[in-house]
Amino acid sequence: MPEISRRTFLHLSGAVAAASTAGLPHPLRARPRRTPPVVVASGNGLRGVEKAYRMMTEEGADPLDAAIAGVNIQELDPADQSVGLGGLPDERGVVTLDASLMHGPTRRAGAVAALEDIATPSLVAKAVMDYTDHVILVGKGARDFAIRMGFKPQNLLTEQSRRDWLAWKTSLNARDNWLEWPDAAAKHTDGTIHMSAVTAAGDVSSVTTTSGLAWKIPGRIGDSPIVGAGQYCDNATGAAGATGRGEAAIQSCGSFLAVEFMRQGYDPEDACLETLRRVVAMTEDRLLDEQGRPQFGLSFYAVHKDGRYGAATMYEGPQFAVASAEGARLEPMAFLYPND
Ligand code: GLY
Questions:
Q1: Is there a contact between 88 and 82 (Cβ–Cβ < 8 Å)?
Q2: Looking at the annotation, which residues are catalytic?
Q3: Whose CA is closest to atom 4 on ligand 1?
Q4: What is the pLDDT of residue 310?
Q5: 3-62 residue pLDDT tens
Q6: 188 FRET partner, CA 20 to 30 A, in 59, 223, 282, 314?
Q7: Which atom, in ligand 1's list, is nearest to the CA of 249?
Q8: Domains within the chain, CATH numbers bracketed
């Protein structure tokens, strides 16, 4: 059985207190609990969680619409080089974007991969979900679909991202190969934004959007557009998502696994930690250091449909964004390995 974390203890304490007043007359008898709404995201989602939370609580927005509006802020921000407009390009200098999402109440999903020229892949993924019988569209088909749906094509390569690509390109040398990461590429593997939300009614949704690994081989997609890897939700349990090395989240079905751990009774934070332990167990030797630790970053974020939330990352340091009745803030993430 999983250990009970502090968050779970506090949550259960509330439930026990409510149960102990069950025989009391009104007004002391506890009313049926409503879920405390909450939105979580990767650290670059601070503005996004605030917006999503406000939409859900003040405007009664659907959790998926709210989460998409939250990640749109980063997609349209040219300063965020991990997502949408201004995202770092592939090895040819072409920006290609990936996104996927799930809507808990309807159990529907949508995704796009290797999408060019459209700054908001999350909204194209939503259109795939809303208007087609498919889940994923890729490449030229995804772009053509987006344009037919009214999205406007634009150049996504900003001057800053072009300069960074040029710097990488000019630093290549004859000894580089695809199984070794140049420092410039490693620096950007943690980009991406994930957002998961739960409403007062206990409905959950999740969305992840990214420009993927910087300088990738054209055609490479990561976990973000793959349902179950980059994000996953199940309205009976909760939602989860990932940022960081996409290959590791794909090989572990990481977001699906985090939700399954919550279904088994793990607190969201413990579910994320347990998922990271599974990732480590499945990591190839070539990616482990002398102490058996992965040489990459990976983070998971999760919300339970009862309003509990948590996140965990491979190495100490990153924070995650949370919005709840206490406001929007960054919180430290649980981690598997201290930075030493
Ligand atoms: N997690 C984003 C990617 O690997 O593409």
A1: yes
A2: 192
A3: 246
A4: 98
A5: 555 455 444 444 444 444 444 445 454 544 589 999 999 999 999 999 999 999 999 999
A6: 282
A7: 1
A8: 34-157+189-335 (3.60.20.30)
